[in-house]
TrEMBL record:
It comes from the Eukaryota. GO terms for molecular function: Rab geranylgeranyltransferase activity; zinc ion binding. It comes from Camelus dromedarius (Dromedary). Catalyzes the transfer of a geranylgeranyl moiety from geranylgeranyl diphosphate to both cysteines of Rab proteins with the C-terminal sequence -XXCC, -XCXC and -CCXX, such as RAB1A, RAB3A, RAB5A and RAB7A. Catalyzes the transfer of a geranyl-geranyl moiety from geranyl-geranyl pyrophosphate to cysteines occuring in specific C-terminal amino acid sequences. Gene3D superfamilies: Protein prenylyltransferase, Rab geranylgeranyltransferase alpha-subunit, insert domain, Ribonuclease Inhibitor. This is Geranylgeranyl transferase type-2 subunit alpha.
Amino acid sequence: HGRLKVKTSEEQAEAKRLEREQKLKLYQSATQTVFRKVGPSERQAGELDESVLELTSQILGANPDFATLWNCRREVLQRLEAQKSPEELAALVKAELGFLESCLRVNPKSYGTWHHRCWLLGRLPEPNWTRELELCARFLEVDERNFHCWDYRRFVAAQAAVPPAEELAFTDSLITRNFSNYSSWHYRSCLLPQLHPQPDSGPQGRLPEDVLLKELELVQNAFFTDPNDQSAWFYHRWLLGRADPQDALRCLHVSRDEACLTVSFSRPLLVGSRTDTLLLMVDESPLAVEWRTPDGRNQPSHVWLCDLPAASLNDQLPQHTFRVIWTAGNAQKECVLLKGRQECWCRDSATDEQLFRCDLSVEKSTVLQSELESCKELQELEPENKWCLLTIILLMRALDPLLYEKETLQYFQTLKASRAVDPMRAAYLDDLRSKFLLENSVLKMEYAEVRVLHLGHKDLTMLCHLEQLLLVTHLDLSHNRLQALPPALAALRCLEVLQANDNAIESLDGVTNLPRLQELFLCNNRLPQPAVLQPLASCPKLVLLNLQGNPLCQAAGISEQLAELLPSVSSILT
């Protein structure tokens, strides 16, 4: 945690080494004695008695992280419960609690010791929870970031039914003493929703505005005091966030040509499980179907589809009505396929639903604007502070992603050039930037009411939100830094033309089972060998494939290999 170790001299180091060797011999001897007393035959002979407590005390006093010995002590204590009088048992428990405290002084972060204390108190008829809260306070005074002790305190507070307001006041005292206390900030995020619950009809996870403003003032004091400490920045992000969006069925698409119905959801589902069941109604009559994912893996997915029988698509009737009901999510979508039409759909608009603005959102945009101005003031004082720069970007996204797009990209450039950014985290920033650019492009496409998405020359490093592109017919991914076309790309059931020239693509796992794909451009990528093209064989309408500039084009007899691998593709350019 950023605390410097004190260097020792060679003489001190040698003395400590000799002391450790002597302790090790005693430790090993005691351990062997314990293991001899807890064997199966010894247990039957009744040797699992108080002498085991004494022996294990010697070992655990030096090394509290010996889980097997804590198990032995619990077994001994359980046996003694039936043998001791209430007075003797009370004295034994008191001694055990004192021993545990001494073990915690040896190692305050010992998993086994804290767990054993939980177990012991859970067996007492009337535990002294006040004493346990005082114990936690003492240990947190020594190390306010001891998450083992924080976890134990939450256990004690729950058992003792401590009011959340009292626990919140406790976090106040610790945060006031030291802002760099992630555990205290985290505990506040658990307590505040308990103190200020929202009605069932309201947005879950949000705080009343007066409480929110008070918390924002507290956290601003923290990051203005120490801008480089990440604890307050994480809490600030939580304050401006909101709970997960409500379950929704985002899009329903029916294709007469493919005799297929496709649905996309607000979160990944595993259809067919006990919790996620889909009911399909065709012309107000239930229809039993087999649901599957576009990539065929049948794992949790945003997109699911099913085949439709010919009777539900015949052109004799003026129209067919399709309705999908998601029972667990309490959501449904309906669309009407008219006579003579080959497809129909019904979807939520990303522009209406604010699908891409869930990371930061509050009731009043004035609060966000005020926070943005405060962060910009801090950034002037701390121009390379990465937490401040990242928060500015997120606030701009929440306020208006399109209005602030140019400024957001400039802040990304500043952030990536900052000396404070760990080079190992640079890829995270690239992916976050790619995510935001893709979201903006989807918004622009929907405002224009087209089904063509241009993502070329944007320096993208990853693809996301592909479930939102269910209706896209033309997709341009050229001149980016993509290394793969991911399996989620299989959700693009309407895609006819895919351009992905001039990337670093090595895998085509996502180009599978695309029923309408006709043209695929993959020039100047890193496709190593013909085998990586195998997924393309599942695209029945693919007729044009451009592979020029890929390593696989250098292989001898490549044209013959490709013709054998993809016999239905009439034009393959190498």
